[in-house]
Specification:
This protein is elongated. It has one domain. By secondary structure, the protein is mostly helical.
Length: 146
């Protein structure tokens, strides 16, 4: 199979989404801890703090913060789910290669991944890599139609 063609901008976008996957998962956990902290924090009103439903009310501020956290969590979870769904469309070898290349604690070079996964031929490696990236782009609706 010939190597699929991917627009360079689309390829860069897909690669960046793969790179940011681990960070996004950590960010969701952090935001969920913040959300839990807001729920669990006791409301401590002093003598001079206003009460009511205005912007200076601590409960009002907490509700606004919770709403913002919920929107952030929802947006990030959609990005994570889209990346996971795209990886699910890939073959096992493509997924293994993309995970080894982009989704590690550190980002190895293509040569390091080739050595780690025992690819003797650079052509085989790059064909598999670009097919995987194309599948992710296709899943997102960004792949060029021929």
């Amino acid at each position: 199979m010939a190597r699929p063609k991917i627009d360079p901008g689309v390829r860069a976008y897909i690669e960046e989404e793969l790179r940011s996957y681990r960070g996004l998962k950590a960010k969701v956990k952090q935001l969920q801890r913040e959300k839990s902290d807001i729920y669990n924090r006791s409301r401590q009103l002093g003598d001079n703090q206003p009460r009511g439903s205005g912007p200076s009310d601590p409960t009002f501020k907490a509700a606004i913060r919770l709403e913002k956290l919920n929107r952030q969590i929802e947006t990030i979870e959609k990005r994570i789910a889209t990346t996971e769904a795209g990886l699910a469309v890939c073959t096992r070898d493509e997924r293994k290669l993309l995970e080894a290349r982009y989704m590690q604690d550190w980002e190895p070079t293509d040569r390091q991944v080739m050595a780690k996964l025992y690819y003797g031929s650079a052509k085989t490696y790059y064909d598999l890599k670009f097919r995987g990236l194309w599948r992710l782009a296709w899943h997102r609706g960004m792949a060029e139609r021929e």
